[in-house]
């Protein structure tokens, strides 16, 4: 399978804190690749570097054959990022927000309409899109932002804890949406603390702790290796 993203020996320090200590992995085309690890393991730092929002202290990121250092614009055009603590503009209406974001990515007015229509479908928010975002529940905001992240059908969607804080039904819906987009050609790099979600969504998982990758494989491979019933047990054994 073709590789869409290569992360090579990534290091990142914040002052004295070494958040990443040489992290390498790759994401194949059409794959959902998940990062799991305890709080502070370095997941968000990794995702933010790939999304070009942070620069690494050392190492390389190669996306679709292009090094991020020289091609940040290309990367930004083809990657979308859903941050963990994403707020949206509270005083904007949902639809205004989608239009505003669509104009950044669209090459012409026709694309703007295509993106907005796609986002309407993904969000499932129908009439509520005419209301101000300040009146939305947490689940509605998450859906709006996921719709924004996927509406361009990016080559790679980076989703930091896509369903955190959502109830079971909303989380299920969001997972289904993500899987649909993978069928249409989007690769996904995500982080999550929810092992059920990871088993349902991911093709491969990387377990990270203290800025290093400890294991990579499919959920099945990891469960077999650690004679574990589920990923939670794998996680416990690897991280302890
Ligand atoms: N802006 C920052 N300044 C200083 N230290 C930071 C900063 N951002 C992250 N760190 C530190 O880097 C390390 C990795 O943090 P990161 O947010 O990447 O972890 P994470 O795996 O995403 O954690 P969580 O699961 O809690 O979201 C932690 O020790 C954290 O305190």
UniProtKB/TrEMBL annotation:
<dbReference type="GO" id="GO:0016887">
    <property type="term" value="F:ATP hydrolysis activity"/>
</dbReference>
<protein>
    <submittedName>
        <fullName>ABC transporter related</fullName>
    </submittedName>
</protein>
<keyword id="KW-0067">ATP-binding</keyword>
<dbReference type="InterPro" id="IPR003593">
    <property type="entry name" value="AAA+_ATPase"/>
</dbReference>
<dbReference type="InterPro" id="IPR003439">
    <property type="entry name" value="ABC_transporter-like_ATP-bd"/>
</dbReference>
<keyword id="KW-0547">Nucleotide-binding</keyword>
<dbReference type="InterPro" id="IPR017871">
    <property type="entry name" value="ABC_transporter-like_CS"/>
</dbReference>
<dbReference type="GO" id="GO:0005524">
    <property type="term" value="F:ATP binding"/>
</dbReference>
<dbReference type="InterPro" id="IPR027417">
    <property type="entry name" value="P-loop_NTPase"/>
</dbReference>
<dbReference type="Pfam" id="PF00005">
    <property type="entry name" value="ABC_tran"/>
</dbReference>
<feature type="domain" description="ABC transporter">
    <location>
        <begin position="5"/>
        <end position="235"/>
    </location>
</feature>
């Amino acid at each position: 399978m073709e590789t869409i993203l290569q992360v090579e020996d990534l290091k990142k320090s914040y002052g004295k804190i070494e958040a990443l200590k040489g992290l390498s992995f790759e994401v194949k085309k059409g794959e959902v690749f998940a990062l799991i690890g305890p709080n502070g393991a370095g997941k968000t730092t990794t995702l933010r570097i790939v999304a070009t929002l942070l620069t690494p202290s050392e190492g390389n990121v190669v996306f679709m054959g292009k090094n991020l250092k020289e091609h940040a614009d290309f990367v930004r055009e083809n990657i979308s990022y859903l941050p963990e603590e994403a707020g949206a503009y509270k005083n904007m209406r949902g639809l205004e927000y989608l239009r505003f974001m669509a104009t950044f990515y669209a090459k012409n007015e026709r694309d703007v309409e295509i993106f907005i229509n796609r986002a309407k479908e993904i969000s499932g928010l129908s009439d509520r899109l005419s209301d101000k975002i300040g009146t939305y529940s947490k689940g509605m905001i998450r859906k709006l932002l996921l719709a924004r992240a996927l509406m361009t059908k990016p080559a790679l969607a980076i989703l930091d804890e896509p369903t955190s804080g959502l109830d079971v039904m909303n989380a299920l819906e969001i997972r289904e949406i993500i899987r649909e987009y993978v069928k249409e050609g989007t690769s996904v790099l995500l982080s999550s603390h929810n092992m059920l979600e990871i088993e349902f969504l991911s093709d491969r998982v990387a377990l990270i702790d203290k800025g290093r990758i400890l294991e990579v494989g499919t959920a099945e491979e990891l469960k077999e290796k650690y004679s574990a019933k589920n990923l939670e047990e794998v996680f416990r054994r690897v991280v302890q």
